[in-house]
Write a structure and sequence with these properties.
Layout (H helix, E strand, L loop, with lengths): L2 H5 L2 H16 L5 H17 L6 H9 L4 H19 L14 E7 L7 H14 L6 E9 L5 H9 L4 E6 L11 H15 L7 E5 L5 E2 L1 H16 L8 E7 L8 H6 L2 H6 L2 H5 L14 E4 H7 L10 H12 L4 E9 L6 H19 L6 H15 L1 H4 L1 H10 L12 H25 L10 H7 L1 H20 L14
Parallel strand pairs: 1-2, 1-4, 2-3, 6-8
Antiparallel strand pairs: 4-7, 5-8, 6-7
Organism: Streptomyces shenzhenensis
GO cellular component, one term: cytoplasm
GO molecular function: beta-1,4-mannosyltransferase activity
Length: 483
């Protein structure tokens, strides 16, 4: 079936209309940012008291530091709003009938991660074949893993599923470990099998992250656009939105805490990855990459790398500037099962990102922005309003005004953006859920709990930095994955 015939198919036209409707629903709101910003500006100016103490100068710096990331995030949200306004002029979605899609799903293969893996893999074979006539799902696992028999049975249940087993004695040339090692093995296998081609795309997914109909239509739409683009302008990489449906959550608390993640996708990642330069990194799920480009970069970044997706993104910035994009598809993950796992997850990310920020193999011009964002994260516990008030009480100085009044506007911008991320992220997660809407009390709860969520995020970041500073051995911690 050719693309022309498919585009005239009424069923695909109806799905295109549904896609446009869903895309409009994802449009970031302005009021959830504007209202807190105005209120915070008025309150800040009203309560301002001149101060030149050491505490005021420290606060002037640390509470202003996030502004670079905030401005990029606001830009990304505005770019999405502009794209939605132009959505009626977008080409109707059609199957990617001339390209081959390989879904790569690495898994540690433990019994406590298998239920989520099964849920995710079954979603690939359910929703992707209609839009990708040439499709294969590769489950990537380690030789001798706990759930090997279950994984083999899952592969036997559908002809599109294949298991790739990484031999225990496999060691890449640069000695990379963990997930990057497995990805590099799969990348070398594709080269050996003659699949490292421009029309072969690799969709990287996590073993707890599924897809839906909107994922398939949006991804096919993106890939088809690259065929029509000029060769010098066609994109080689793209990323969509990671959401957390309510039904996948074991803990309501961590589900609310993870509202910040989809908001980051429609903000910073939309601005940077969507404009061609993924300087803030990418996440390892719903990341699509040409197999020919992945063959040139590879995943063999060395034995200390535990944030292979971010390292890949910064290498991509250097080799292929301007050639990444962002698309309006969602994938469906699951929040950590409890607060302890939430902190452990953030700790690993921070540990790896801090190391990447100090990695001189990556030119500074490609890692400075990520370094600013990571510094803001690591300093989180010291920036917390509770910590600031405690220090003020101890030094008998409760004046938390900045050194100059104009900084109040920067602070209002930063704090309003934090409120917006949780508000909008919650909305996106609710849209991805069966009900499609938030419960009346959830927006109130998520905003009220921001100080608590900030403690957990900051604690994970600080612990990650501490482990890096102590030069502890890198560990790729994999938390349990809820079904």
């Amino acid at each position: 079936m050719t693309s022309t015939l498919v585009e005239s198919d009424p069923s695909f036209s109806r799905q295109g209309a549904k896609l446009a409707k869903r895309t409009a629903a994802w449009k970031p709101g302005v009021l959830p940012f504007l209202l807190p910003f105005v209120l915070l500006v008025f309150f800040g100016l009203w309560s301002y008291r001149p101060s030149s103490t050491l505490l005021s100068w420290i606060l002037t710096v640390v509470w202003s530091l996030p502004v670079a990331g905030v401005l990029v995030g606001v830009q990304g949200a505005l770019l999405i709003r502009r794209r939605v306004r132009r959505s009626d002029r977008m080409t109707p979605p059609a199957p990617a009938a001339q390209d081959f899609l390989i879904v790569l799903c690495p898994t540690i293969g433990r019994h406590d991660t298998y239920p989520a893996l099964e849920r995710s893999v079954l979603s690939y074979v359910e929703h992707l074949p209609d839009w990708f006539p040439y499709l294969r799902v590769d489950i990537l696992t380690e030789e001798g893993c706990e759930a090997a028999e279950k994984i083999d049975r899952l592969a036997d249940s559908h002809p599109l599923i294949r298991v790739i087993t990484v031999p225990k004695d496999y060691t890449p040339a640069n000695g990379t470990r963990f997930k990057a090692r497995a990805n590099h093995y799969a990348h070398e296998l594709r080269i050996e099998e003659g699949e490292a081609l421009d029309y072969v795309w690799v969709l990287h997914m996590d073993d707890d992250t599924g897809v839906g109909p909107d994922t398939a239509t949006s991804l096919a739409q993106f890939i088809n656009r690259q065929r029509r683009a000029h060769p010098d302008e066609a994109k080689h990489m793209a990323q969509g939105i990671l959401t957390y449906p309510r039904e996948n959550a074991v803990s309501l608390f961590t589900w609310l805490a993870d509202a910040v993640r989809p908001a980051d996708d429609i903000a910073r990642f939309r601005a940077l990855t969507g404009m061609g330069t993924p300087a803030a990194g990418v996440h390892g799920e719903l990341l699509v990459l040409r197999a020919s480009i992945e063959a040139e970069i590879g995943w063999d970044f060395g034995p200390k790398e535990i944030v292979e997706d971010a390292r890949l993104a910064l290498t991509f910035c250097r080799k292929y500037p301007g050639r990444s994009d962002w698309f309006n598809g969602r994938c469906y993950g699951a929040s950590p099962a409890n607060a302890r796992d939430f902190v452990k997850q953030r700790e690993r990310w921070a540990w790896g990102l801090v190391a990447l920020c100090f990695n001189r193999q990556v030119p500074l011009r490609y890692r400075w922005f990520l370094s600013v964002c990571v510094a803001t994260w690591v300093l989180g516990p010291l920036q917390h309003i509770g910590a600031v008030l405690l220090v003020g009480w101890l030094v008998n100085d409760m004046n938390t005004s900045p050194a100059t009044q104009s900084v109040v506007i920067l602070w209002a911008l930063n704090f309003a953006y934090v409120i917006w991320t949780y508000w909008e992220g919650l909305r996106l997660n609710a849209l991805a859920s069966v009900s499609g809407r938030r419960k009346w009390w959830e927006p109130i709860a998520v905003v009220a709990l921001i100080p608590v969520f900030s403690v957990l995020e900051g604690l994970g970041g600080l612990r990650g930095f501490t482990k890096f500073a102590r030069r502890e051995e890198n560990k790729f911690v994999v938390i349990a994955k809820p079904a």
